[in-house]
Amino acid sequence: MKSRLLKITSAVVLIAAFMGSCKPKNTSDTVSGDAAQKAYVAPGKYDEFYNFVSGGFSGQLSVYGLPSGRLFRVIPVFSVDPEKGWGYSEETKPMLNTSHGFVPWDDLHHTEMSQTNGEVDGRWVFGNANNTPRIARIDLKTFKTAEIIELPNSGGNHSSPFITENTEYVVAGTRFSVPGDYENGDVPINTYKENYKGHISFVKVGKEGEMDIAFQIMTPGVNFDLSHAGKGKSHGWFFFSCYNTEQANTLLEVNASQKDKDFIMAVNWKKAEEYVKAGKGKKQKVRYAHNTWDEHTHTAKSEIKTEVLVLDASELKDICYMIPCPKSPHGCDVDPTGEYIIGSGKLAALIPVFSYDKLQKAIKDKAYEGDYGGIPVLKYEAVLHGEVQKPGLGPLHTEFDGKGNAYTTMFVSSEVVKWDIKSLKVLDRVPTYYSVGHLCIPGGDSKKPFGKYLVAYNKITKDRYLPTGPELCQSAQIYDISGDKMQLILDFPTIGEPHYAQAAPADLIRNNGQLKFYKLEDNKHPYAAKGEKEAKVVREGNKVHVYMTSMRSHFAPDNIEGVFLGDEVYFHVTNLEQDWDVPHGFAVKGADNGELLIMPGETTTLKWVPDRVGTFPFYCTDFCSALHQEMQGYIRVSPKGANVPLHYSLGTNFPAGK
Amino acid sequence: MNKMYLLAVGLLLFFSCGKEKTNAGEDFTKASSTETSSDPSSYDPKRGEGKFTTVDLGTGLDVAMASEGEKVAGVKCMSCHKLTDERLVGPGWKGVTERRTPEWIMNFSTNPDPMIDKDPELQAQLELCLVRMPNQALTDDDARHILEYMRQNDGVK
């Protein structure tokens, strides 16, 4: 007890000392003269890189330019987004379906770009939902979420969506071990050690990106934190950091910090594939949603799947190995050569670097120090390449510049530290403002990093910008890392609380066959109106389908009558524009829903249930021309059973009537 | 001497052109302003600006082409244009094939933005309509078929 108190006290003193020494005198310290020039992208000029930044608790993905830090777009993924009608339009609602039904929010933690031969290829970005475990695929031709798959047997889908070097698999490790969905989860919580299991999902990615859970590996109950795939020589392996190897179920900040070492779990996924082929997996009854977007019908569909294949790591002895790693490991990063695996213990005062070659030898020699829930535990020294001594406090994440250097964020001491992977010597350190979490170097977790910029994503922003009440934006900071010393050149605000981010050269993305508009002739939406002559209103029982078109600057039809209280009105709006960058909006008074934002050539549907008799205006929300304000119309709602015939018109004025 | 001068000018032109171009492909490499950057004094108000220099109309109306044109126009044009001389969002189509050359019509329908910026009559029209004609991504065939439909509308047999 005494010694623990001593430990805590000394840690506090040490932290205070670090904080004190790193805190700048004012917010503009450490920025030198030519910084602005390095971050400046003149009006009309393009940025060098796209930066895809997770929106954390906003649930969305934001797209920034590097080095300007300009925000280009927020792509809705796991949360409803009134700006784009995501989760409000009938077509997008299925994308947010889960086995729990429609879930309007989630916590998008990490982003991962697809790779070919270990290099970013600009096809897709994957993102994970932390809360109700899911993985999304965002298509970079459309900058739209194309697919979302739910993960059974999981809680807190944190160590995902990391990817293998040819995008064979996206993985997802559960943060909370939980009783499997196929078991009765109604068990006392203090039976964690017996009843709680970890599940790691290997999600297969097809040629067109389509996702499918190929198999899960069941492990002892621990908390999986982060992961990275092997590459090059270590292709075929995956590495997951785990904490709470104490298997505590309460007050984890103390109870999961008991051991000096937790683990990095090394998974031989090629071996796992062999076991799957050999029929060693068990099919388990589960329920999870698989949602896909169809670019031709502009509509999502959601399918519930009911089975998953589970491999038991304690039975199949040679797919998982535990590497002891000090202490409460968080980041788990593999260098561009695939040889070095870097563990970052949140509570460790050093950074352990493991060697893939030594791992192979240790396995061959059976250099075990015991087992953990049936999984062999390797000897620390047998796998260790070396330790970076005194790197800073609270090492979290590491990325690489492709020149033999690693860059690690230090959460507690608020800095980024550059060190040499082979010699393990610290080369440079720069302060961040403040409490840095993830970092991103374009291509920085691939075989081919573009080691020019480094972006640090910070948790705390106080005193960096004009205050906005108790809540402040999170901030990202761009460093030029092209020289020996890192140089801060810009900071910019971000949405939500960004976790991971990835970046790729701009040309790789913008020249990949970007969609500029939907071709009207290819529009296969069942309620599309291709041309004003197809605009109409059709009653089916108490459902009224409005086939509406929009063209700058009017809707067709713009007068609708003969709708009754108790009807469900579906506005199916087709944007007839075939010009780039001319979306139209649609909003109707009193809708307990959102707006629509319809891209050129697209059809989108708003469900509106009038709650009273009267006449309701609708209008376009997105400015397209000088006559934008005139882009409007009326829908009349009469009492049920009233003698008002269904009628719709455009440009026709009738004599004054009832 | 003269030859050297020409060579030097030629090289300069070569380099200045080369700088603008990149091999990255498609419209994405163009800065937004380049579409309108060519010299307005070289604009031909009879032909307009675009890929069409001569359009062979043949002797009479091609009914099949006109009918194709009617279909495309129904999807992409008729929300803004009437077949009469009445203005809707844009001007009515009645008589357009008598007022404009076939080349002008096909260039304008496939390449509206640069022409709106240069053509004096289009600029006058814009003051009336206040909506720039959108680029509706017509193919060359679409444009030709619509032209035939316009001719039919103007009474060509």
Automatic annotation (TrEMBL), chain A:
Which InterPro entries does the protein's record reference? Answer: Copper_CuA, Cupredoxin, N2O_reductase_N, Nitrous_oxide_Rdtase_Sec-dep, Nos_propeller, NosZ/Cyto_c_oxidase_sub2, WD40/YVTN_repeat-like_dom_sf
Q: What EC number is given for this enzyme?
A: 1.7.2.4
Among NCBIfam families, the record links this protein to:
nitrous_NosZ_Gp
Keyword terms: Copper, Metal-binding, Oxidoreductase
Put simply, this protein is called Sec-dependent nitrous-oxide reductase
Q: Which Pfam families match?
A: nos_propeller
Q: Which residues form the signal peptide?
A: none
According to its UniProt record, where is this protein located?
Answer: Cell envelope
Q: Which gene encodes it?
A: nosZ
Picking any one GO molecular function of the record gives: nitrous-oxide reductase activity
Q: What class of enzyme is it?
A: oxidoreductase
Automatic annotation (TrEMBL), chain B:
Note the superkingdom of the native organism: Bacteria
Specify the Cytochrome c domain's residue ranges.
64-154
- List compositional bias (Low complexity) regions by residue number: 32-43
Q: Kindly list any coiled-coil regions of this protein.
A: none
Q: Does the keyword Acetylation apply?
A: no
Q: Where is this region: Disordered?
A: 28-49
Q: Which UniProt keywords apply?
A: Heme, Iron, Metal-binding
How is this protein named in the record? Cytochrome c
